[in-house]
Amino acid sequence: DSGVTQTPKHLITATGQRVTLRCSPRSGDLSVYWYQQSLDQGLQFLIQYYNGEERAKGNILERFSAQQFPDLHSELNLSSLELGDSALYFCASSVHNEQFFGPGTRLTVL
Amino acid sequence: DQQVKQNSPSLSVQEGRISILNCDYTNSMFDYFLWYKKYPAEGPTFLISISSIKDKNEDGRFTVFLNKSAKHLSLHIVPSQPGDSAVYFCAASEAAGNKLTFGGGTRVLVKP
Questions:
Q1: Residue A95: its pLDDT value, please?
Q2: d(CA A102, CA A2)
Q3: What residue of B is the nearest CA neighbor of A10?
Q4: Which terminus of chain A has fewer Cβ atoms in its 10 Å neighbourhood, N or C?
Q5: Do the beta carbons of residue B56 and residue B66 sit within 8 Å?
Q6: Range list of β-strands (E), B1-112
Q7: Chain B CA closest to residue A103
Q8: Is B78:B59 a contact under the CB 8 Å cutoff?
Q9: pLDDT, tens digit, for every residue of B72-84?
Q10: For residue A57, pLDDT beyond 80
Q11: How far is A15 from chain B (nearest CA, A)?
Q12: Considering only CB atoms, which residues of chain B are within 8 Å of chain A?
């Protein structure tokens, strides 16, 4: 158990819909990262927050957005969903060098 | 543009023998490297890391070697155990705390 929690574990929705994925980092970790793992792309960095502020952005679509709240939990919002957004979404947190990953949310867009 | 590559998609090894996983990178700005293990339906689990100022780091059965001039790192697992059967990812970052760039993974099967 990494100490990072993610909800929900599974999400099934339709194209065009909007969903919110939630992540609670390990106690004391200020950085939260979001990654997407799809079959053909491997693990890809989406976005990083540090103590409530956006720190780095990867290849995150404009339809996707994230935020980190004062209690340090983070949410990833995915809108206008497409079939290709079906993937595993992982959250990770860190305080120093190593990132610790949550169990992931499996998103299926039908 | 794959900046981190794991050229062996799979590896099969006998229990008790050594497992050697390889990883190559192209970005010379990478200075921190990590290995993760992943079981199905779980998130990646951190195994071991190495800074670019070192060429070797050891933790129990796991040793990571870094060859900066060749832009190559490897993970040695000795002795291999059936519980080590998983997918192993190599990852790199340009600085501590920065985003990770992952390789495509190597699936390891340890046979009893």
A1: 78
A2: 7
A3: B41
A4: N
A5: yes
A6: 4-5, 10-14, 19-25, 32-38, 45-51, 56-59, 62-67, 72-77, 86-93, 101-102, 106-111
A7: B43
A8: no
A9: 999 999 999 999 9
A10: yes
A11: 24
A12: 32, 34, 36, 41-46, 49, 51, 89, 91, 96-105
Amino acid identity for residue A15 in this structure: T
Structure tokens at B67: 């060859």
Residues B17-71 have pLDDT tens digits of 999 999 999 999 999 999 999 998 899 999 999 999 999 999 999 999 999 999 9
Query: How far does CA B61 lie from the centroid of its chain?
Result: 13
Contacts of B69 (CB under 8 A, 6+ apart): none
Minimal CA separation from A17 to chain B, in Å: 24
User: Which letter does DSSP use for residue A25 in this model?
Assistant: P
Return the residue matching tokens 């390789």. Answer: B103
Q: Do B44 and A94 touch (CB under 8 A)?
A: no
B30 and B15 Cβ atoms separated by less than 8 Å: no
Which tokens is A76 given? 């990833």
Cβ atoms of B106 and B86 closer than 8 Å: no
Identify which of A87, A81, A86, A88 has the alpha carbon closest to the alpha carbon of residue A104. Answer: A88
